[in-house]
Design a protein that fits this description.
binds adenosine-5'-diphosphate; alpha/beta; 11 helices; 18 strands; 406 residues; binds aspartic acid; 6-stranded antiparallel beta sheet; single chain; binds magnesium ion; 8-stranded mixed beta sheet
């Protein structure tokens, strides 16, 4: 059972989470809980680091950030004790969560949950600090990237052969962020494939890496509310039935576009730039390569958190290629439509552009996958764009009652 930051934001909520863990234990199952840091703790720690040092050392950043989850999970264990049950909290490292050595973005490689299993055997409720692990290569604490407690939850479920419940302040995965679209609908199920695209295009309700781990290990995720008992959303293998063209609209508001001009055609300069970016562990999103008058222009977008690493990568590429003309545009966002049925419904791109155009949203760049269309737009247009697309594809209606595509 995983509880996010809002779910443990204050002492009352911590006691509520303890109650949910105890209720599950009293139903006769063995319970492992993993929790995120309280409320905005991680953001506050990041801000603090930034006030102390303009470029905080990544190893020390992980030492700092991992404390947030440690605090929350010790407090939950205390609250469980007060309800008359035994509980024990562990850091990621104590729980045997082994990762690679990439500070601030580590990937879980293996879990050896000896202490967790031992404590479960003794009837205890086990709390594991989310978002962190330990690298054998460096013998250091690592963190798993923003939203990483979701990955902790799925990896633990896979290692323990357990079911995986992810509790948050929303009752499941919706057709759009319910904070932006009040009539967004809760989905009863969503396939791994669709959830991967949704997470990759900004639906932060589940972390991308957690969905990858779930698909890789066949873990079904039940995403549901901390504060209500209703069923949430199952993230699982597709059921093979008829798919709606569009399942959900997603968005992000932290995209930065890098444009590199004047690359010489016929050299592998764009590959070399993208390789440098990848070696800094930055995932690029939209990529457009265009040519004209013997030169190439490479444009790609990254998340704003990755801007310093991208600048470093471009510096390294420059050292190899000679000076490159780089332009950086911030203040962008993305709106995307996602649905496995996109494959078999032509005309979705046309409807997407028409809806955005009718609402005065200018599309700067597009990228597609077989089941997603993403449009890079000005950040100020994102919310309008999301509402326009939700409306255009009638996502507030029950799937069976939506008008057919034209
Ligand atoms: P937690 O702190 O529990 O991990 P997050 O803040 O990471 O929770 O994720 C939950 C938030 O994700 C919700 O409050 C909601 O605003 C946002 N969200 C974005 N897209 C969606 C979506 N399609 N369905 C549900 N929630 C979404
Ligand atoms: N506390 C971390 C974050 O804010 C991890 C998480 O919430 O899952 O990103
Ligand atoms: Mg989260």
């Amino acid at each position: 059972m995983k509880f996010g930051g809002t779910s443990v934001a204050d002492p009352d909520r911590i006691r509520h989470v303890a109650r949910r863990l105890v209720d599950a234990r009293e139903r006769g199952v063995r319970v492992v809980g993993t929790v995120s840091a309280m409320g905005r703790t991680t953001d506050t720690l990041l801000e603090l680091a930034g006030r102390v040092s303009p470029h905080p050392d990544p190893r020390e950043l992980d030492m700092l950030l991992s404390t947030g989850e440690r605090i929350a999970c010790a407090l939950v264990a205390m609250a469980v004790h007060d309800l008359g049950h035994e509980a024990v909290s562990y850091t990621g490292s104590q729980a045997g969560i082994l990762t690679d050595a990439v500070y601030t973005k580590a990937k879980i490689r293996e879990i050896t949950p000896v202490r967790v299993l031992d404590a479960l055997e003794r009837g205890k409720i086990v709390l594991v600090a989310g978002f962190q692990g330990f690298s054998r290569d460096t013998m250091d604490v690592t963190t798993l990237g923003r939203g990483g407690t979701d990955a902790t939850a799925v990896a633990l479920a896979a290692a323990l052969g357990a079911s995986c419940e992810i509790y948050s302040d929303v009752p499941g995965v919706f057709t759009a962020d319910p904070r932006i679209v009040p009539d967004a609908r809760k989905l009863s199920a969503v396939s791994y494939e669709e959830m991967l695209e949704m997470a990759a295009s900004g639906a932060k309700v589940l972390m991308l890496r957690a969905v990858e781990l779930a698909r890789g290990h066949g873990v079904r995720i039940h995403a549901r509310s901390t504060f209500a008992d209703e069923l949430g959303t199952w993230v699982q293998e597709a059921d093979g039935g008829d798919e709606p063209a569009v399942r959900a609209v997603t968005h992000s508001t932290d995209d930065v576009l890098f444009t590199v001009r004047g690359l010489v055609e016929g050299t592998s300069s764009s590959a070399s730039i993208l390789r440098a970016v990848a070696s800094e562990h930055v995932s690029v999103d939209v990529i457009v390569l265009s040519s004209g008058q013997g030169t190439l222009e490479l444009a790609f977008s990254v998340a704003s958190d990755d801007v310093p690493a991208t600048r470093r990568a471009l510096g390294q590429a420059e050292a190899r290629l000679g000076p490159v003309d780089v332009h950086e545009a911030a203040g962008l966002g993305k709106v995307s439509v996602v649905g496995a049925g996109l494959r078999s419904h032509p005309g979705i791109a046309a409807r997407t552009f028409r809806a955005l155009e009718e609402h005065g949203v200018a599309v700067r760049m597009i990228s597609t996958s077989p089941i997603k269309i993403s449009c890079l737009v000005d950040r100020g247009d994102v919310e309008r764009g999301v509402r326009a697309l939700h409306e255009a594809f009638a996502l507030a209606e029950d799937e069976a009652e939506r008008p057919a595509a034209d």
